[in-house]
Amino acid sequence: MQTIVAYVENKPGVLNRVASLTRRLAINIDSLTVGPTENEEIARMTICAHTDEKGAHRLEASLEKLVDVLLAEKFSGRSACSRWRGQGASQ
């Protein structure tokens, strides 16, 4: 499982172009989440795909070539989130 994050222009049709790209690359999307950023003209797309390192690199490079994609980067292997255990939280 590989995770790729892409910052895209927040306009109609972008999701369809990204989904079509993964189909052409024969990469199966397990999960795809799109949400707004602080800038209303940009959306963040998180793609979890069932592929290997090589496939993830191909997808990242191909996403970068799409006009509506501002930035794409492989997120697999990084710490995605951590839980804060403040005072009174169970350990």
Distance between the termini: 29 Å
Number of helices, where a helix is a run of at least 4 consecutive DSSP H or I residues: 2
Radius of gyration: 15 Å
Number of strands: 4
Question: What topology, given as strand order, has the largest sheet?
Answer: 2-3-1-4
Q: How helix-rich are the residues, as a percent range?
A: 25-40%
Main sheet attributes: strand count, strand direction, barrel closure: 4 strands, antiparallel
Mean pLDDT: 84
Give structural notes.
This protein is α+β, with helices and mostly antiparallel strands. Helix content is 26%, strand content 35%. The chain has two helices and four strands. Strands 2-3-1-4 form a four-stranded antiparallel sheet, covered by helices on one side. Strand 2 (28-36) and strand 3 (42-50) form a beta hairpin. The chain starts with a strand and ends in a 17-residue tail after the last strand. The mean pLDDT is 84.
Write the layout of secondary structure elements.
Blueprint: E1 2-9, H1 14-24, E2 28-36, E3 42-50, H2 53-65, E4 69-74
Antiparallel strand pairs: 1-3, 1-4, 2-3
Task: Briefly say what this structure is.
The protein is of the alpha+beta class. Helices cover 26% and strands 35% of the residues.
Keywords:
globular; 26% helix; alpha+beta; four-stranded antiparallel sheet; 2 helices; 91 residues
